[in-house]
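Weekly puzzle thread! Below is a chain. First person to post its structure in token form gets bragging rights.
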Amino acid sequence: MVKVRAARPAEAEALTGLVMRSKAHWGYDAAFLASCAAELRIRPDEVTARRIVVAEDPEGTVLGLASLEGGAPLATLGLLFVEPSAIGQGVGRILYRDVLRRAVQQGVRRLVIDSDPHAAGFYRAMGAVAASASPAGLPGALVRFEAAPAPLADWARAWTGGGRAVHVGNVAEFNAQFGDSSLDREQSAAHHYSCLAAFYSPYPSALVLPRAVPAGWTELVCRQLGWTGVEVYDGLVERGPGLVEAVRARPALAARLTGAGEPLVPWGLTRPFGLLAGRPWRAGELRYESKAAAHGLFGRILAEGGHPGIVLPAQVRAAGRWAAARLLAARARAGESTVLKSEHGVGGSGTTVVTARQVRAAGGARALLRRLPRGPLLWGDFLDVPLTPDTPPHLTPAFFWTPPARSHEVGAALMDVTAGAYRGATVGPGAVPDWAEKPLLAFGAAVGRGLAASGYRGWFDVDFVVDAEGRLAPTETNLRLTGPSIAFMVAARLDALRGAGHLVRIADRVELGARLPEAQLDELCADLARGCAELGAVFVPAIPTGAFDPAPWMGVLVAARSLETLDAAEALVRSEAAAVGAMFDAFEPADRPPGPARGAGGRP
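Winning reply:
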């Protein structure tokens, strides 16, 4: 493993030789190199003053060097050179990230980089932003870049106490405790979604997953997010909700996960998780995961005043299926649309928007209801969504609470919701309009106080719909991690790793043109990572296991520093994912999908 240490004055001559060899690697002639020699020479008395560090291999061979020059708030990356034999092995990436880390420690908020043109692609891929024009007096063909070193966000540091965490992908277990009829009994979707356990905090130490996942997936995720030493325990549960029970049935694994003193982070709180983590279990903590209970909490908050511009849609619990049919028929006769919801559906499951035309086309309200999941239904007013693209229809603020009842404001997200189903979300600077962000966060904080009073501690967010008049309407609370929370975690990590200002989008479902063998899926993801990097974006595969379904898909994360680049990166990912599988259609076995080998175990 490559490690970074402070350079020594006695190494100055050897380091100068490394710099000149690295410069010559790009094909410059002897005359040009001679003209650069004086500027690139490192003198013994400069080693400490220029804050030079070196990267060395386990045998002590120096592979590269970097310098951080100047002071807060403005500093310069004066040198970053890699031994030619080590170029392309990640040494430059390690040195650059070390410079950003040290810059944060020293209060630097703006880092200037004057790059050799051959290195411009490297700095762009590392997140530095090219200046719109090279400043006057910049020597030769150097290209100027800037980065904004940033510490890990305060909320992210508080989430896991500033350290690494064990991530437990108990999505199916969380859903199953509510017994909602709209959820698939096998919880196959939940097992796919458990792959998001990779992102339950900005830096995991271990992932605990129900299904087996491709080794290439975790390797790419670790490379993209700068993680090392992440252990993966997968293939523990093929179907059903018993992930934590499977862990507890393996005493050695349970001891490994709980004995290191690191926090255990689940998708959501459950009784089995409480037993594993040694956390007292109080089922009442999750009372506001119920849509009806959350609606009551919203009404009490609004009755107290102080939240102008926020309205509460009507909600009624139907006494039975026939009572629901009568209500639906009456609203259809009046030309009104209705939102029908199950009590605990997630991700849009159990939510249906029904228009008067649909009731007529189905042959009446009773006939339409027969097509919906069994179980109790809530119905509510349908709010017309905005008719203009500049008013976002679905938003959510995110928070979490830690004892003693202190809330941490994370931010607000713009959600992609189609036909009542969640499809993804975007977080970061400018993702949510200024006019909406402040009231969203204020109402979310009030909801958090109500949750804290009920004993809940953990992550939560509040889903909102924006109507055609621009009013914000809260619809439900999520007392668990969510898709937007994953985007916030990745944004926090990338800001600390590459500099501030990342927008992150999570897209739950990107369709693949065909099922791909595992090796080809790895190849596709590597190609997408390179293609997004050329755009100035970051690609992270989020849900790989859907690629082995009969109707193949994958979840993805993309990050960039502008909405335009983010949109371009998502378009590239969707286009390449749809097209690349075509060549495999003729060769794909019909009897079983390709995928990773199944089995329980841990791997670094």
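Puzzle host: Confirmed. Bonus trivia for everyone else. Residues 434-453 form the longest helix (20 residues).
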